[in-house]
Specification:
The chain is α/β, with parallel strands linked by helices. The protein is built from 12 helices and 20 strands. Helices cover 29% and strands 25% of the residues. The N and C termini lie far apart (54 Å). Bound molecules: ligand LLP.
């Protein structure tokens, strides 16, 4: 996170003082570094250069239009999972031939919109879905392309709610069924079956699960070859982990070193879908200390944001490093850092050694660029926090703070009340 650093005791994002932004926009807010974002993208691209992949940014990690546009301007494509993400990709004029669409539950509306857009391919997750895509493409009289998302049945050591590559999960198609589908491809004349897709999970920090999955994919591709079935694409999915706490994890270069030889053997056009590893460490979440409460047994730092803003700690017990925005010499004590929401699950850190801050001082929750703002909610009628983007000495709100008006605009009281 070198774009976030202290200068004379004050936290900066690139050339902008975080405190300046807090004064201007109020708290809490998300803050992203443009340079960090682009550097992460370029690093992955450089690491995998020998196989020249199409890198489709997984929009689910951060779907802000400015973030996605910054990346597509550098040549990234988009990995989408919903009509909303497709519409956002179209709004920033992403190249349709760089859009791939995964989701176990694509609706007719979503399929039709994607066919009309002319996306690169669907990542198909069941035979039933493939039949549906074929019949809708036929109705539209427009051929479309697909890969089959195979379930390689490998367990990635990550949080159980974000592992996806075993048969216990709802994702992908088992190899036997996939083989049958490829052999009967003429059942789907409006869908060109062009390849294989895998995605084995997220926040994966070792290379082994990928190696296992790629070996399975390779042997499957060879089986298909023997049957005279030739493919064009192999989509590796996303999943590379970032450093939240443990520094000893595989980075893009380590993944590349181990995976490139296998990808070369696979010898197809390579697509990748990284999300977190592009945007995760490019953002912080800034919030303000309200009260330091001591109940005799425990101390709590209560801040002006909650699980509705950033729910990874509540949902996954995820660790996020937290730092003061102004460096302080005050003594560190053990505390929970919590929000104002009416649930005990509303916390950012438990039993964390953290300096004793005064009311009004700011803290920054790190690694808040992926799966944070996108997962925010309006629980307890709290407006979602704004997102600010910094590039050098420039900054802009790339999403405004939600107001009370925004929160009630879709609600109405019916006449019969
Ligand atoms: N491709 C597919 C098909 C996916 O399902 C995902 C993530 C990705 C790519 C991107 O994976 P990444 O490179 O970001 O690991 N909310 C959770 C993470 C859920 C990930 C879901 N799928 C979290 O906060 O950790």
């Amino acid at each position: 996170m070198s774009e976030f650093s202290y200068k004379k005791g004050e936290l900066y994002c690139e050339s902008i003082k975080v405190k300046t932004l807090a004064d201007k926009f109020g708290t809490p807010f998300y803050l992203y570094s443009y340079n960090a974002l682009i550097n992460n993208f370029l690093k992955i691209q450089a690491a995998f250069k020998p196989v020249d992949p199409l890198i489709c940014f997984a929009m689910k990690a951060n779907d802000n239009l400015a973030v996605v546009k910054a990346l597509t301007d550098k040549g990234a494509g988009c990995d989408i999972v919903s009509l909303g993400e497709l519409q956002k990709a179209k709004k920033i004029k992403a190249d349709p031939q760089k859009i791939v669409f995964a989701s176990v539950g694509k609706t007719e509306e979503e399929i039709i919109a994607a066919i009309k857009t002319g996306i690169l391919f669907f990542n198909v997750e069941s035979e039933e879905e493939l039949l549906k895509i074929n019949s809708l493409a036929k109705k539209l009289n427009k051929k479309t392309s697909a890969t089959l998302r195979i379930n390689p049945d490998v367990a990635a050591a990550t949080h159980q709610r974000i592992t996806t590559g075993t048969l216990k999960n709802k994702f992908g198609i088992d190899l036997q069924t996939a083989h049958r589908i490829f052999k009967n491809a003429d059942k789907y004349p409006y869908v060109m079956l062009k390849g294989l897709h895998i995605h084995i999970g997220s926040q994966i920090t070792t290379t082994k699960p990928y190696v296992d999955a790629l070996k399975k994919a390779l042997s499957f591709i060879n089986t298909l070859k023997k049957d005279g079935i030739a493919l064009e694409y192999f989509d590796l999915g996303g999943g590379f982990g970032i450093i939240y706490k443990d520094k000893n994890i595989a980075g893009p270069k380590d993944f590349a070193k181990v995976l490139i030889p296998l990808l070369k053997k696979i010898d197809l056009k390579i697509v990748m879908e990284p999300g977190r590893s592009i945007c995760g460490d490019t953002g912080i979440f800034v919030t303000k200390a309200l009260y330091l409460k001591d109940n005799g047994a425990k101390r709590f730092l209560i801040v002006d944001s909650g699980m509705n803003d950033l729910m990874r700690p509540s949902l996954y017990d995820a660790y996020h490093e937290i730092i003061p925005v102004k460096q302080t010499h005050s003594r560190k004590i053990k505390m929970d850092i919590v929000g104002p929401i009416c649930e005990s699950g509303d916390f950012f850190a438990k039993d964390r050694m953290f300096p004793k801050l005064k009311e009004g001082e700011l803290i920054a929750i790190k690694n808040a660029g992926a799966y944070c703002h996108v997962m925010a909610s309006n629980y307890n009628v709290r407006g979602r926090a704004p997102e600010i983007l910094v590039k050098g000495n420039k900054y802009a709100a790339i999403k405004k703070r939600e107001t009370f008006k925004d929160l009630v605009k879709l609600e109405s009281i019916p006449d019969f009340l």
